[in-house]
Specification:
single chain, about 325 residues, alpha/beta, 9-stranded mixed β-sheet, 9 helices, 9 strands, about 35% helix
Length: about 325
Amino acid sequence: MEAAPLFVDVANAPAGGQSWWVTAADGEKVRVAAWRSGDGTGDRGTVLMFPGRTEYIEKYGPAVGQFAARGFSSLVLDWRGQGLTARAKADRRLGHIEDFRDYQKDVAVLVDVARRAHLPKPWFLLGHSMGGCIGLRALHEHLPVRAAVFSGPLWGIQLKPVEVGIAWVVALLGPVLGFGDHLTPHAQPDHKLIGGRFEGNDLTTDRGMWDFMKSQIARYPDLALGGPTVVWFRAMMIETARLMRLPAPDVPTLTFLATRESIVDIDRMRRLMARWPNGRLETMEGAEHELMMERPEIRKQFFDRAAEFFRQNS
C-alpha cells in the first residue's frame, strides 16, 4: 500500500487517520483511508463505509468521529471515478462507469486493506445512496460483515410513473445513438454545491453541514464531481433492476428512510425491506437524503441507532 493524500484540514475527522493508494484487480488505483477508534483497539469492530455518488473520503470525517466516539474503527474509500481516484473521462467533472459490477473490484480492495491493516473485527457495512446499491451487491457476493446499515440506498432512482419508460429509452438508446458520454437530461457538469443555493436543496436541512460540504470542494476542487453520463445511468438502471429481482441477503440489516427523500426510489426501499430476513426500515422525520449531514438531533439519532444495531449483531 502506497501513501496517499488525506486532507485533514477539511475532514473534521479524528486524528490518526491513514490513507493509501491500493491497486484493484484491473489495475485501477483506489484511495482508501482508515481510522482506529479510541485507544487504537477499536474494541467494537470496524465500519466499512460505502459512500454515495459524488462523495469522497473527507466528507465522511464527521461520521468517522461519530463512530469513534461509540467505539468503532472506520474504513472509507473513493470509488473509481470519484474523489482523488482516477476519473474515467478527460473532463473529470463527468460521473462515468461502464458497468456497476466494476465497483465490486473496489470493494475487494477495501476488504483487502481491512485485512492487511488488521482492523478489528467484527466488520460492519454502512452504505449511503449509491454506496447502498454497491453494498447490496457486495452482500450478495458474501461481503464478510456481521450486519449492514443503509442510508437512503440507491436501489432505484425516484421517478414519476410517466418518466420510467422515458428513463429506459434514454438509458438503452442514448449510448447506441452516440450520446453515452453526454450528461443525463437535467444534469449539470459541476457539483450541485458549486454555485448551488442552500434554500430548496434536496440534500440536507442543516445550513452548517451544507457549508461544511461546500467548503471542502472549494478548498480542494479535485474532490468535486458533477452529473452522471448516460452510460453511468444505463449501468445504474440495469444493476438496480437486477438487484431487485434477487432475494434479500440473509444479513441483519437496518435501513433509514428520510421522510423528505426526493432522490432515491422509496417504493423499492419499502418493498425490499418488507421481505428482508432480519431487516428493519426506520424513518427519519423531517430529514432529507443526506442523513449523516443533517441537523444535529437527526445525526445523533442516526449514529446512536446504527451503533446500537451493530452492537446487537456483534
